[in-house]
Every structure is written in C-alpha cells, then in structure tokens.
Amino acid sequence: MKLHRKDWFRVFLILVGGTVVNTWGITWIPFDKLSVSHFWWIIIARSASVLVSLIAIRIFCPAVLPRFGFGNKPKQFLISLGIVLFLMGPALLHTNYRHAGIAQIFESFVFALFIGIDEDFFSRGFMFGALERYGIWFAAIASSVHFGLLHLGNIVFGGQSAAYTIAQSVSAGAFGLLAAALMIYSGSIWVPILMHGLCDFPMQFDTGAQYTKMVTGGADWIAVGGDLVIYSGIAWVLITWANVEKRERLIRRWQLAS
To answer: In the chain, pLDDT over 70 holds for what percent of residues?
Structure first.
C-alpha cells in the first residue's frame, strides 16, 4: 500500500504521540514513592502503562482486541509456542538457579512477565494495531524499528554504555519483528508476551556486578548479527505462512467501508 503525505503524518503522530504518553508520560507518576517494595511499585507502574495502552487500543484500533484472547488457530498457536521454547530454552537451561528458592523464582518470572505484558501491549498491541491499516508488513517493520529505538533511552536512563545500547537496540528491533510475526501467525498477543517474559527471566538471576559489567561493556556484534538473521528469517516465514495477502484484502475492505 502506497502511503501519501497525510498517511506519513498520521504514522508520525502515532509513533511520537504514543511514545510521549505511554513511555515517557507514565514516568512522571511517582510510583516509587509508594510505601511498597521495589517489586510491587514496578508491577503497579507497569500495570498503569498497560491500562493506558488498552485505553488507546479501545479508542484508536479496537479491531485488534480479538488478539488479546488465545486465538482460534490451535495448530498455529502450538507451533508458535514451540518456536518460543526452542529459541528461549537454552538460556533458561543455563540460568543459575542454585541459590534461588521457589518463591524467588516465581517472583522473578512474574516480574519478567510483566515487562512483556507492558511492552507488548504497547508495541504489538497499540503500535502495530494503529499502523496495521497501512499493511501487515509495514506495521510489523515500523512497530519493530520503533521498539528497538525505544531502547536507546537506556544510555541516559539505564546507565548503559553507548556501544552496548546500540547493539541492544538492533537486537530488540529484530526481536520485535519476531514478536509481531508470532502474534500474526498464532492470532494471540500472549505468545510474544510469553517469549518476552522468558527472554528477560534469566537476567533476574544475574548479580548486580554481573549486570553492571554486561551493560557498561562493549557490543557483541556477532551475537547481534545472529539475532538479526535468525529472528528476521523466522518472522518472514511466519508472516508468509499466515496468508498475508488475504489479510491485506480484508484490511483494504475494512478501510473502504470506514
């Protein structure tokens, strides 16, 4: 689908406006002043962000709400779960759980899962949904590039080195494309949310020294290149298998009717 000047202006407003309200606007609310533990104020803050995303989806792109169920394609759903476990399994198996109790493991998983719920409701729910009228591929690529660029803020707010953060942004963009493809193929946003949670879960067991050393170091461009090739390749296959042409025709028909 060819985008005209007014379409590009709308896309710009979606990307910038969504970022300002959901990503930066939420940070002005002093959740850290609540008399609760660090775990709970993070959960509360991310829940508020999720609520903002849901409101935006309900107002601007309610057609995507069926994806917040578990879809009606059990075969594709199971295949998608298999892909997630295949990609995330090695990191989970090599995580050091030795000094962690059951309660800490459960809390760490919930914490990581809320990261996925928050960020995927925004990027795969609202961003992708608002851009989907311009085509599945455009929405997948644009929302994924935007998701990657959001990580650049970690240079300022996350205490990360520029080299590590730039590499992280590239990997995150490829990860976002795969997440969008899994959602399209399975028909459910919960598949990429699970992948996102499992991806962030092992990091919860790094010590402070290990984490600081990692994020303040250099970039592993070989690993980044691997992520880019593998994630993008799987995403291309999944979106192609999802019968994009049929979906595109339905979107155009919806546009003409509205």
So the answer is: 93
Question: Rounded to whole angstroms, how far apart are CA atoms 74 and 108?
Answer: 29
Identify residue 199 by its one-letter amino acid code: C
CA dihedral 186, 192, 193, 194 (to 10 degrees): 90
Please give the average per-residue pLDDT across 190-201, as a whole number: 97
How far is it, in rounded angstroms, from Cα 240 to Cα 181? 9
pTM for this predicted structure: 0.91
Confidence of residue 82 (pLDDT cuts 50, 70, 90): very high
Query: Measuring CA to CA, which residue among 170, 108, 102, 183 is closest to residue 139?
Result: 183
